[in-house]
Please model this.
Amino acid sequence: MSQFQDKVVLITGSGRGIGRTIALRFGQLGAHVVVNFFRNRAPAEKTAEAIRAKGSQALVVKANVGNIDSLAAMFAQIEATFDGLDIFIHNAASGFNRSVMEQKPKGWDWTMNINARSFLFAAQHAVPLMEKHGGGAIIAISSLGSERVIPDYVTVGASKAALETLVRYLGVELADNNIIVNAVSPGLVDTDALRHFASFEEYGQAVIKEVGSNTPAGRLVTTEDVADVVCFLASSQAKMMCGQTIVLDGGYSLRAWR
Ligand SMILES: NC(=O)c1ccc[n+]([C@@H]2O[C@H](COP(=O)([O-])OP(=O)(O)OC[C@H]3O[C@@H](n4cnc5c(N)ncnc54)[C@H](OP(=O)(O)O)[C@@H]3O)[C@@H](O)[C@H]2O)c1
Model:
């Protein structure tokens, strides 16, 4: 039997992209999955149907994680349905993709609230629910933009740097509650997120090709690769991991020259 059998797992932003693959993986492993979406209900319902088809429970919850009340309502719904939580994956992200000089305070607030602030306040809701189950695991999805410079990525990059800092603080402060907190920082993954860059039409395919061919491991990171590392960090094998961010990029960011 899988160690995730009957565990309750929340994955924010899990109707599409990386979050969807993580949700499907936990569903396959017998977990009860909370599928969160913000704008796109149809893919979230499809993800939930695919999980139910494998015999696991799936609860679909609409919530804007960047909104404090919406976040609280999502956790209230989880408590009313499952009376606890074992694993929380902070995957949802958004961003105002523009150059430094084109950024506006509204885009900064939007991005920071969804990508970073929500993690801290979601964790405050998650902890009492995890304590009902004797502990748990919290995993954030960061990105290389926390440390490296990616075109038009300044607000997301800053939010991911804040996120990784929060992971360290939560890791230390929650260790005593039997809750482990870590992050995965994937390299480029071919999802809809790439299409949100204004430059995608002109340069997107070239960037995908460049990253794939300059990755020492020989290819782009996939959503399945991310789900593999998330599952490890959620497992009992990772119980001594505390506040770490694991770079998952096939070695792409290690090279100084190509
Ligand atoms: N793709 C990459 O190259 C890459 C690389 C490194 C890290 N990452 C990280 O991996 C995570 C997933 O990225 P992805 O590529 O799968 O992105 P994606 O395909 O654009 O999906 C984003 C997901 O986040 C949800 N979301 C956005 N704003 C939300 C909000 N305010 N509240 C709740 N959900 C919200 C979306 O839900 P709706 O559809 O309902 O709006 C969607 O399910 C992000 O944290 C991203 O930064 C991605």
Observations:
- The pocket of NAP is lined by residues 12-13, 15-19, 36-40, 64-66, 91-94, 114, 141, 143, 186, 188-189, 191-193 (CB under 6 Å).
- Helices lie at 17-28, 41-53, 68-82, 105-131, 154-174, 200-213, 223-234.
